Amino acid sequence: MLITHKKHAARFFCCCSENSEKYHHNVIYHHNLTYICHFLSSVTSECCKQKGDVSSREVTIVDTPGLFDNLQADDTVKREISKCINMSAPGPHAILLVIKVGPFTAEERNAVRKVEEIFGEDAWKYTIILFTYGDRVKSDFEQMVNSVGPELQEILRKAGNRYHVFNNLKVNDRGQVLGLLEKVEKMLADNGGQFYSNKTYMEVVEMLNQREAELTELYQQKLAEEIQSVELKHKKMLSEVQEEHEKVEKRLQSELQEVKRYYHVLESGVRHVVEQMVPTDSMEDILKFHETLKLN
């Protein structure tokens, strides 16, 4: 059963073509989450990761909107693909291949080809075709599926004829979300309850863990150095102004507390930062990226 007392986790890897819009996020999450990553705005070419609770299950969606656009530079596409794999490590429980109801487009064909290149043939066992804009189908949807062209029929065959339909005009219909999760549950059971993984994912997990540990250790070292620097500065101040001893001591504790808070925020975001990196990025690149983030 989907609804249990114990909260489970599921990672979804959503593969969208250039023109696929991000309504599937809204349908899945609805008011459970704010519209992070501008889900209702124009299509972006960057990977996006979002978590939320749906039917007692923690769902993580890694989205690739516009990622397979032929107009994108190869280096940009490779970097975004690397980030998407980082974000979905140690591997997705389900790969959702998002396709609009209607003619099978060149962009969608390219997206399917890229998915096969990235994940390999074994990934089809973890794939569900997610048709959006189901409201456009006025007749029986199964009849429509049976009448589609040979290319889409072959894709459905590879995915074990697993598909789901989202009606974008009925975001309040939570039954269609539960229906998708039920199909994911069945697919997971058929796969022995295991998420998809391969050599690339195993290497990525090792890389992420190593860089996370390195960055955490670096920040802990910097924190110790900052604490020592602050204490020395205030020790000097105390020796110079004995009459303001209490004021200086109070300032010392406040500054130490702020330094600790600063590095605690940095450490709490380490995993997010390393997910944005690729293996060729240096530690200097990682630090430079992290320092540009707005700290709360």
TrEMBL record:
GO terms for molecular function: GTP binding. It comes from the Eukaryota. Residues 205-258 form a coiled coil. Pfam families: AIG1 (PF04548). Keywords: Coiled coil, GTP-binding, Nucleotide-binding. Residues 6-205 form the AIG1-type G domain. InterPro entries: G_AIG1, GIMA/IAN/Toc, P-loop_NTPase. The keyword Lipid metabolism does not apply. Belongs to the TRAFAC class TrmE-Era-EngA-EngB-Septin-like GTPase superfamily. AIG1/Toc34/Toc159-like paraseptin GTPase family. IAN subfamily. This is AIG1-type G domain-containing protein.
